[in-house]
Design goal:
By secondary structure, the chain is of the alpha+beta class. The chain has nine helices and ten strands. It folds into two domains: 94 residues, 2-Layer Sandwich (Phosphorylase Kinase, domain 1), CATH 3.30.200.20; 193 residues, Aminoglycoside 3'-phosphotransferase, Chain: A, domain 2, CATH 3.90.1200. The two termini are 38 Å apart.
Length: 312
């Protein structure tokens, strides 16, 4: 479990009195995840996940859980928070903010196919359309201010080449008019392990920790850098075509969005290079980072710079 906050059966039973979802039958910890404590549990009426949020502020949780509820009401396949008897999406448990999520059927796909890319492309388009009238706003926690902070943080620890790479990229991003592109609610972390599939059917999108108000095409670029990735770091044209066609059929991309894709791919690569590097070099107490290799995204950034038209 990522950050372990123990919850025993008696504590969970007491907490579940706030909900109209039956009586507790069984619960167990979930090992997946990085920043939250998660328990899977069954009741007499269904299967759910209890999430204790270890790091989010109250305002961030209001946005995240509110967005998930908003999307689910509009029919988007995603992790759906359950309202308690007072109409609240979260409340306190063991000195943490905690919420109950309906468990999504399926599992993470180990090998991403064109079929998977088409399904997630279509669902992301529905997500973006459904989130267009979500009135709450949350700034991107890994936006331009965050990049500037990372630039200062790594000024004395990166080698000269990497420091220059970081400085050059951030300078380009600071000058780019992101707000000239369509904006709205985005997931901002939709890697293939943040979606569950039941055979060839999309069960739903999970892990909204980085959801925010941002640039829609950036959300699509994050998917491209993961779901469509070949072993050599290039983008697989067949999976990319399936992704973009499925998205475009539901929410047609504007020409200016398509033109911005090469830069958005670089922005996405830099974001995960820096976040992984930060987790590796400055780990927070009690947070399991799995020591994911930051150089995977550093090398991707270099490749996206050298081959800006790769697959786009």
């Amino acid at each position: 479990m990522s950050v372990f906050t123990p919850v025993n059966a008696a504590q969970l039973e007491t907490f579940l009195r706030r909900y109209d979802i039956g009586s507790l039958v069984h619960h167990q910890g979930i090992s997946a995840g990085i920043t939250n404590t998660n328990y899977a549990f069954d009741t007499t009426v269904g299967s759910f996940v209890l999430t204790l949020y270890e790091r989010h502020s109250e305002s961030a949780l209001d946005y995240i859980l509110g967005l998930q509820h908003h999307l689910a009401v509009k029919g988007v396949a995603c992790a759906t928070p359950i309202l308690d008897v007072d109409g609240l999406l979260c409340s306190a448990l063991n000195q943490r903010s905690a919420g109950v999520i309906a468990r999504i059927p399926g599992a993470v796909c180990k090998t991403v196919s064109s079929r998977h890319c088409a399904l997630i492309g279509a669902e992301l388009a529905r997500f973006h359309l459904a989130g267009s009238d979500y009135v709450e706003k949350r700034n991107n926690p890994c936006g331009l201010d965050w990049y500037a902070a990372m630039e200062k943080k790594f000024a004395t620890v990166l080698n000269e080449f990497d420091r220059q790479l970081l400085n050059e990229e951030i300078e380009i991003y600071l000058q780019f008019p992101f707000t000239s592109l369509p904006q709205g609610a985005i997931h901002a972390d939709l890697f293939h392990d943040n979606a569950l599939f039941d055979c060839d059917r999309l069960g739903g999108i999970i892990d909204f920790d980085y959801a925010c108000y941002g640039t829609l095409i950036y959300d699509l670029a994050i998917i491209m850098n993961d779901w469509c990735l070949q072993a050599d770091g290039h983008i697989d044209p067949q999976r990319l075509d399936s992704l973009l066609q499925a998205y475009h059929q539901i929410r047609p991309l504007q020409s200016r969005e398509h033109d911005a894709l090469p830069l958005m791919l670089r922005v996405g690569a830099l974001r995960f290079w820096l976040s992984r590097l930060n987790d590796l070099m400055f780990p927070l107490p009690g947070v399991l980072t799995f020591n994911k290799d930051p150089n995977e995204f550093r090398d991707m950034l270099l490749l996206r710079r050298d081959s800006p038209a790769d697959g786009v």
